[in-house]
Prior knowledge:
The chain is α/β, with parallel strands linked by helices and 161 residues long. 25% of the residues lie in helices and 25% in strands. Strands 1, 2, 3, 4, 5, 6, 7, 8 and 9 form a nine-stranded mixed β-sheet that branches. Strand 3 and strand 4 (59-66) form a beta hairpin. The longest helix has 9 residues, at 8-16. The termini are far apart. The model has no long low-confidence stretch (mean pLDDT 92).
Amino acid sequence: MTTSAAHPRFAEALRALGLDDLPTRSFPEATRTAAEAAAAIGCELSQICKSLIFAADGVPVLVLMDGASRVDVELVRRELAAGKVTRAAADVVRETTGYAIGGVPPFGHRTRTTVLADRSLLAHDVVWAAAGTPHTVFPMAPADLVKHADATLVDVRERTA
């Protein structure tokens, strides 16, 4: 692990928010998935914040979810009063956010979207999220992450039986 600059677009977003000193970390191995990130960082899987793009009636929406959980698209659909919610295609993710899947940060996107953050993120003092590349991450208090992402707190985690 090394200290490293984030993706240039994300670094600019950090500067705009006055977070220039936020530490980002770079890993030689990919942190593209929540499991890879947790293993590289040495934290619990649930301390990873996944930034997932869905399409609600064709309109991109960002869902922030803890790394140990899955998004219940039906709960997202109800939350947004949408007719249909699906996972967004890779090209839609890149077009909407400016980042590739596996490196999408929770804020600093190319376009403004609705952001939903699952309450499960608040169970930790610190969570780790992608910093714009599949090899970079940053730590942040969940409440601050929700605030900077301009997210609405919701319960959209898939429940296990």
